[in-house]
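User: We ran a pulldown and think these components assemble together. Before we commit to crystallization trials, I'd like a predicted model of the whole complex to look at. Sequences follow.
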Amino acid sequence: MDKVRDRILSGFSVAGLFVFLYWAQGNATEYQVRLLNNCAIFITLAVSYNLINGICGQFSLEPNAFVAIGAYTSALLTMTPAEKQLSFIIEPLVWPLNVISFPFWLSLLVAGTVTAFLALLMGFPVFRVRGDYLAIVTLGFGEVVRVVANNLQSVTNGPLGLKGIAPYTNLWWSFGFMTLTLFFVHRLTGSSFGRAMKAIREDEVAAEAMGVRSFRHKMMAFTVSGFFEGVAGGMLAHLITTISPVLFTFFLTFNLLIIIVVGGLGSTTGSAIAAVLFVLGGEALRAVEEPFSVGPLQVPGIPGMRMVIFSLILIVVMIFARKGVMGREEFSWQGLINLIRGVQESGVQGVK
Amino acid sequence: MTFSIFLQQLINGVSLGSLYGLIAIGYTMVYGILRLINFAHGDVLMMGCYFAFYAILIFSLPWWVSFPIGIFLTALLGIAIDRGAYLPVRKAPRISALITAIGVSFFLENLGLVLFGGRPKPFHRPPVFGKVLEWGDIRFLTLSLWIPSIAFFSLLLLLWVVYRTRTGRAMRAISRDMETVRLMGVDVNRITSITFALGSALAAAGGIMWALKFPQIDPYMGIIPGLKAFVAAVLGGIGNVLGAALGGLLLGLVEILLVALMPSLAGYKDAFAFLILIGILLFKPTGIIGEKLPD
Amino acid sequence: MTYDGEADLRVRQKGLPGEPLKKEGRPMRNVFAGMGVVFSLLILAGWCLAAERVKIGAYLPMTGAVAAYGQDARTGIQIAMEMEPAVLGKKVGFVLTDTKSDKIESANAVSRLIEKEKVVGIIGEMISGDTMAGAPIAEKARIPMVSPTATNVLVTQGKKYIFRVCFVDDVQGEGAAKYAFHTLKARRAALIVDKAQDYCVGLAKFFKDNFTRLGGQIVAETFCVTEDKDFSAQLSTIKLANPDVIYAPNYYSPVALFTRQARELGVKTPVLSGDGAQAEELIQIGGKEVEGVAFTGHFHPQAASTRLAKDFISRFHKKYKADPNAFNALGADAYFVLLDAIARAKSTEGERIRAALAKTKNFEAVSGKLSIGENGNAVKPMVINAVKNGKFIYLATVNP
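Assistant: Here's a predicted model for the assembly, 1047 residues in total across the polymer chains.
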């Protein structure tokens, strides 16, 4: 009975989301649409990053590399030869990239596959180590990818980057893919594979002793993570229409890290919520940086306070609320109903 | 490449390498004792430079007073960070401490940006460091002699503290088993604060040397030295002080020689450093010297 | 592992059934509520009191890797605003958004400026890459954008609403090559290029093309990356090649460090750079070793001829006790040019301002007489400045 109820509720919410998107497409302002797209992309990134970090427990710092690979692959495939010629003014683009031009959906697919494949290759050396060393190795790979992107003038156009990428990303694509990612990751974590990953997270030695092939599962998490991050990267490229290596530094990884930590390492829902908070909160916090008037007084804005506040939030969360917003729990309809009932009850009590 | 050019590059490499080494020994000491990769080490370095800079600027103190003041203030900063940010997460899984360190790093950088502004500030180089010495075709600053000397001296100082003092003994004990040491009645928190103070002081010293060599400071200046020092520390065997110094030397030499021998690949310099890092971690994670727990 | 402390905590936190979770003190709540009401009233009052303004927005990197340039531009704009605080009879309202030196933020910032703040014109950004992220949004919304320092040719290409008050990379590179060849009589040039900055890569390429076309020879091409502080290896290569001139197109701090190290290593070749080098810090950081460094630039404080320039420089002096650098001046110029266009258009409509901007001719800006030419690029004379006796001196003008 519960399961049917859950399915119906989920179905309705997804439908509701798409009705909202349909309305937004026509009526929301460009700024709002942009923010919504950002939210969807960051949710996708956070949720896939959480798969390897939170659910599988392998603390890695490489998403900026995967996003970069995905973004560049996708952009290089969709840009028309004319557009490419415009961008590559120092050195021409290498064959066959300079003559091909794929449709958007195909380029995303290829981007995801290429990233997943590279994740697979990277996984072999990476998972030979654990713990702190794993973090360092993935950080190193992330930087290597960025430096290579900066130098491979004839493929990535070096520091000049790619410009004039067609803005294919719209609400349908970003939210559509986000829903797909959420669904897939949710099913994966709920499956036996997911349970195995969680076992690895809790105690790898014990898991191995119980017969869980840890390497295989870590690879799986890593590759799946890579696929989704790669596609998200492609969508990002087609949203901002210009990419260059400077977009894919450790800052990006750091932002994603804040998101999944604040949301709760190990909770897909938490990552999604935190991603939305991050995008919207970042914009809302701009108020701190702009001067505003309190009556006749002018309070000057302090640019840079936003980032100071973000870092403080991370530190405070780590000290006081390490579990994050959702801890390890996931969203469930039952949980929501309980929450509502709980609030109702305490409200009734409070009046007394 | 002629011999004199090679010698010149060697001197440059030693100068740069010992600078990396100086910064690396503080980094590796903290890791060796607390098993914490202090991502904020580079930013503590940056704060040390700014402390010294403002000591000179506001109070017009001569350099041989303001540099020690800068180092002292940075040691206090290190203690503050330990007490404020790392102590509460000491009992937590290691990942939490790592993330907190990343948070502290970003916090310091952005705080520096807000307080000091983004424009690089010129760092005064006292004449005693700036004389150019010539030896045939080879030229170098007196600074190139100072840095290895100070690095060497700091290394000896650190080794003496860790191996010959009671506090050092406590540090080594903590690196083995913190809980038992606590049960033995040692004030673990005090010892870790001292560890951080020492590490931060070394970072500040390294930072001031860095600022003397490259006379400008800005809030993001600590990122690269911190990262390079980290690679150096891992290279030498993380936790091993002597290894860090040698690792730094090696890294500096490799970097300079790479750019000198293959100038067209200079853009890949950082990638090489990281590939070396990854290679070491995969094939010989204990580093060149070996991850000797300080004992 | 067996004791589930988490569950225990959960039970304790939830409280026993029937117990309210928190007991809030009544007085504190009232105080907060009261403060909130007063605060909101004040803000409302301020909002009502604020007369109608002409809103100009700026998206600049105030944090992040290139925060220095954004901060400089903002300083310039602030002084420019003091000088000309009104247009079309209304006060100018200025809104600044930080791009964090990041493209995603740049796009969001422009979007927000247009939609939320309803600005009539935008100044920004300082880096070509970030400007290219924000430009399509302004173009689509038909809000004119003036960049102080984005020098990549691709920024304005194919766009009607995007303008700049600085040179394009090819103009500067060509000017530098001509100066090196004709004035310095150099025939052998060495380069040091920051591979991670499109500004440097662009200038270097155009210098190379023009220099070789004139008949010169590139004897060494070395590379570095941003944040590099040690150039000893590159300098050894350059020293070996024995060039007549070293072209080091970069921003002031790397140029200062590079030149200092060059002189320390005994490399006495004249160093030529670009407009990014024009800043007090070049001399402060470089010390006496940067004597003789020449660069293509926009203006020279001493030889400033326009009224705006003189006024701007004297105000800057009074406030900051220093000469303005290229970023301050260009930030101010972006503001002045935009304001001038609004005044000439006699309207705040995007289309009209754009048309007026495109027709800008011989506008007496801080950085010289400026016209907007093809593709929205600035056409103005270039100066060659050099460092002499610890100051910037003016050497020559290269007319367009």
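DSSP finds 16 helices and four strands in chain A. That may be worth checking against your pulldown data before setting up trials.

User: Thanks, that helps.
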